[in-house]
Amino acid sequence: MPSEGLILGIETSCDETSAAVVKRGGEVLSLVISSQAGLHARYGGVVPEIASRAHLETLLPAVREALGEAKAGYEDLAGVAVTRGPGLIGALMVGLNAAKAISFALGIPLLAVNHLEAHIYANFLQFPELAPPLLAFVVSGGHTLLAYMPRHREYRVLGETLDDAAGEAYDKIARFLGLGYPGGPEIERVAVRGNPDAIPFPRALIRDGNYNFSLSGLKTAVVNYVRRREEEGEPVKVEDVAASFQAAVVDVQVYKIARAADEYGVERVVLAGGVAANRFLRERLGKELLRRGVRLYYPSPSLCADNAAMVAYLGWRMLEDGETSSLAVDAAAVLPLGARLP
Ligand code: KG4
Ligand code: ZN
After folding, report:
1. Torsion (CA) 313, 318, 319, 325 in degrees, nearest 10
2. CATH 3.30.420.40 spans which residues of the chain?
3. Which residue of 93, 155, 210, 211 is most buried, as measured by CB atoms within 10 A?
4. Would the pTM of this model clear 0.90, i.e. be above it?
5. Measured in angstroms, how far is the CA atom of residue 37 from the centroid of ligand 2?
6. In this structure, which topology does domain 131-299 adopt according to CATH?
7. Cα of 123 to ligand 1 centre, how many Å?
8. Taking the chain (342 residues) in consecutive chunks of 10 residues, what is each chunk's mean pLDDT?
9. May I ask the CATH class of domain 6-119+304-320?
10. Is the CB–ligand 1 distance for residue 275 below 6 Å?
11. Residue in 156, 167, 275 with CA at minimum distance from that of residue 219
């Protein structure tokens, strides 16, 4: 294959080892995602040490597979994009060091990507007609964050979680209820058969006038409710607990995002991150925004979860912007989203 300027993407920030090959402009030629969920399931959450070791074993085979599927060789690459952070530090280092080695050996640019920004850009990858200004709601296992995006690659963070990320709360409550891991899809599956109005769980910060989120009180309320029922010898209907918990999480999210859409006068909202796969959130939010003439976008499930296609795509845009990275760049467990506008 002639050198078309392909971008190799690498993602190892959490428990997914992923490699992808994306053409300049955004056509995804291959996307390999190797999930470690099976390794972490018995612990009910990601064990950082296990994640790093698994990335070491899986990454190069994933890169080879992605190149093979794209019918490309290393010589066809115009750049290598990799998640630099935020994420688990040891896990990030595996991907970043591999990308540095590829960049150095081939003499091609290294594009060190912010994982949160890559989640947002999964929407631009999937919907070429999409353009800012817009609101982005990033909800994953590690983050809950609402940002206003006036132009490409510029963000004003409006609010964040004060404690648990949404996905983290789903995972913890699923574990408490004896459901599987990852917990988000399990809660959603069980909640379909439950009544979201059965238990009036708290909606923290809903009318606080800010865009922050808090889920620790809700988590405690769920645990207390279940324990009390058990102590009183009353049956616990897991379906109702899951549905009422999910409704409490989503109510606050929908209320705050709709208010921000009003305040910033946007016509588009994008969902990003693993929790963006939640159908209850998509439907409730989509309806609320539609009443305002605002359109909701969200990526298909494989582009919602951690994946290297979004990393490669954002890397390509960075290359276009001339924003290449030094080989001295470090992995960062904590990395804020973009430059904060005044
Ligand atoms: O973005 P992601 O793949 O990894 C991080 O960067 O954190 O998000 C994973 C999180 C997990 O907490 C998982 O339980 C949650 O996303 N999740 C969901 C759903 N699918 C995945 N949460 C709620 N509903 C879902 N359908
Ligand atoms: Zn993620």
Report:
1. -120
2. 6-119+304-320, 131-299
3. 155
4. yes
5. 14
6. Nucleotidyltransferase; domain 5 (3.30.420)
7. 16
8. 77 96 95 91 85 96 98 97 97 98 98 97 97 97 96 96 96 95 95 98 91 97 98 97 98 97 98 96 98 97 94 97 95 82 41
9. alpha beta
10. yes
11. 167
